[in-house]
Amino acid sequence: MYVAVKGGEKAIANAHRLLAARGRGPADTPRIRHDQVRDQLGVLIARVMTEGSLYDPDLAAMAVLQAQGDVLEAITLLRSYRTTLPRFGTSEALDTSALPAADRRISAAFKDIPGGQRLGATFDYTHRLLSGSAPQPVPPDGDDAAPSEPMPRVTDVLGASALIEPDGDADDGDPDPGDLTREPTVFPMTRAERLQALSRGDEGFLLALGYSTQRGYGNTHPFAGEIRVGEVEVEFDAPEIGHPVPIGRIELTECQMINQFVGGGGREPQFTRGYGLVFGRSERKAMSMALVDRALRADEFAERAVSPAQDEEFVISHADNVLATGFVEHLKLPHYVDFQAELMMLRGLRHEFDDPAASADHLPTSEHTGNDMEVGA
Asked: Domain range spanning residue 62?
């Protein structure tokens, strides 16, 4: 039935060559190296690594170059490569409180916090004016000096006074979360599984949903309790050694949102939490993730779930940009047979509409439809 698409191999090969030529640009222009992309486009690399579920700045930079800057294509390339890697074991849970030397650490809830606020590298205070040249780096000032005192989480300070809900359920024994990369998605999900899916989810989609909760579609208008950007040590669980082994450090962005308080039913009023954690410098994604995380916890607090951001199946099923891209872009592939079937059906309906007296016997049979589809293809 798909005879018409045969013989297109030469055209496809030519399309590949044309794509490579477009990506290369003029031959007299120096080719961009992946280390330049890695070192100078850190925010882009962070997104590709996070949504590609693989922390490797070099591979992410190579994917961005191969995809010619198409972020979703780069994410797809990274995920595809990830599936070819062997799995040697698991790492210990990251201790994100061990970010004493955070590159950036701010709180919108308190002005004075233990350890102080650190603006770090941020676009927050820049003028959004297009410049003809890249800004020149300046020597760091006192704000970038190593902190002299510990930086406890702002939410831990509130937790010490029981003003915010506990961080996790101490009664569940902290079971190992499922792995969405190896196990099928089953609803309802645990919060740990949802956080995995949100971390891998499309930044733009989560941003829109998070924004919707602030506009009333989810009743969430939180305070940014704390946002941290910095490196944390990764420890590998090596059974043959008998203790975890440090294998390196990775850069993370963590967001703790302080949301509206709840109480009643014998429970004292407390603030609630929203949480976001992503690779690299990606504050917008971490904040959006925290907003949606809190919205999806409506059932925990006996809240009415009436908005899209509160619908777990809707959010999780549509957040993955690799799945969304594949489903949308597959429409570009040949659908000649399917369309001919629809076309024959429409012609039959039009025939019946124009001549109501016509019986079903006069409509095209499946045999006729099949022959016509072959001709149409």
From this structure: 13-84
Note the pTM of the prediction, 2 decimals.
0.85
Looking at residue 3, its pLDDT comes to 46
pLDDT for position 205: 97
The candidate with the shortest Cα–Cα distance to 16, out of 68, 81, 64, is 68
Residue 134 belongs to some domain of the structure:
no
Check residue 87 and give its pLDDT: 86
Same domain, 298 and 216: yes
Helices and strands, number each (H, E), in the chain:
13, 4
Between the alpha carbon of residue 92 and those of residues 21, 232, 244, 245, the distances in Å are 45, 12, 7, 9
Q: Give the integer Cα–Cα distance in Å for 253 and 122.
A: 13
Residue 176 lies in a domain: no
pLDDT in tens, 95-153: 887 565 678 999 999 999 888 899 998 999 988 888 766 666 666 555 555 555 678 88
Instruction: Tell me: cis bond preceding 334? Omega within 30 of 0 counts.
Output: no
In a domain, 244, yes or no: yes
Distance CA(274)–CA(258), nearest Å, equals: 7
Tally of structural domains, the chain: 2
- Asked if residues 214 and 291 have their Cβ atoms less than 8 Å apart, the reply is yes
Residues 43 and 111 grouped into a single domain: no
What would the DSSP string read from start to end of 309-351? GG-HHHHHHHH-HHHHHHHHHGGGS--HHHHHHHHHHHHHHHH
On whether residue 217 sits in a domain, the answer given is yes
Using the structure block, give the residue that is written with the tokens 């941020």: 122
